[in-house]
Specification:
Length: 403
Amino acid sequence: MIATAVILAPGVEGLTPLFGIPAIRRLVLILRRLGFCDIHVVGRVAPCIPVLEDLTPRRFFHPVERDEALEEVVRELSIPAEEKLLVLKANQVVDRRALGRFLEGCGGELPCRMSAAGADEPSGGIFVVERADLSPAVHSLWFRSALDPAVLERMRCLPGEGGLPCGVEGAADAKCCEDRLVGVLSAHTKADDGWIASHFDRHISQFISRRIAHTGLSPNQITLMGMTVGLIGALMLSLPGYWPKLFGALLFVICVVVDGVDGEVARLALKESTFGHYLDIVTDNIVHAAIFVGVAFGLYHDAGDTIYLRFLWAMLGGFGVCLIAVYQCILRLDEETLQQSPGTLRVMALVTNRDFAYLVFALALIGRLDWFLFGAAVGSYLFAIGLWVISFREKKKRAVSAD
């Protein structure tokens, strides 16, 4: 476990803001979330102290007034000889998940370096080294020179993704680094997104997220705004007439697009939280339930036929059965068992897939929302039965494999 980092600040480039957060503060926040305990800042530390004083104790700031004093300062760092270290510059821009994967990928084979894919120069990037190789790594990053050949020969090079890590040199290229951070969001959400969400929704949500991340609007506020749009859509769907239903279905689609914005802003502005995660889940389910109820009452108001209300009760019963099935077949499994259950993982993707909003809109457009209500009522029971069958078969396969 690597828990010590050395951040080099030879200039003031690390103070360049990205989505309103100085680059060096972004790094320290990311490192804290990855479990780093000791984060040493070496270099022109005076302007960095006000930016980091709530995150890093004063004893971890090591001033270097002259380049000639760098070697001596590094040598005097109170870091044990056997310690494994992460070494990077204050102006490095990297994604938290990519950095976490890099640290896991290094394993026990050191030294390692992560650089942007396609960057072949023998300097720059992010290093993981042992204490004995700290000075060559620091010298290479500080003076932008090639690594010591002896160290370079032993070094494993692991590519980054989406053009990261990259160095921000000032406000002029901050936009380029922000574009790269936005770009890697797609890789994070690809596994959970449906086809429409991946190829359509994300392009819109990322366009919005990039701009909102600069405003200071919190992800939780965005979540509540999206829920409000969804609930208004459900209200419109419950009204009699063609146009209110079509408008309500359109609002539901907008709600689905906005639903991606809160998570993206949380990652870009480093405002992710457990509360926000559960708030997003709760509000999603509230909106979904409201949409189904709205569709049923809207059809009832149009035709005056109570069969739509009976189908609503049947559908709500089906959702209850689905919740029981999801709990028994998914939520009760530990992470390792779940990863060994590809069929269950595919079902999980269906649970989180919100592409059905476009089906609601298409059926509202042709005036056949009754198809959606009937399909949802029957489909909820079929889904639960299918989940139990898949779970039983995979449990049986695991038992056979264990024998």
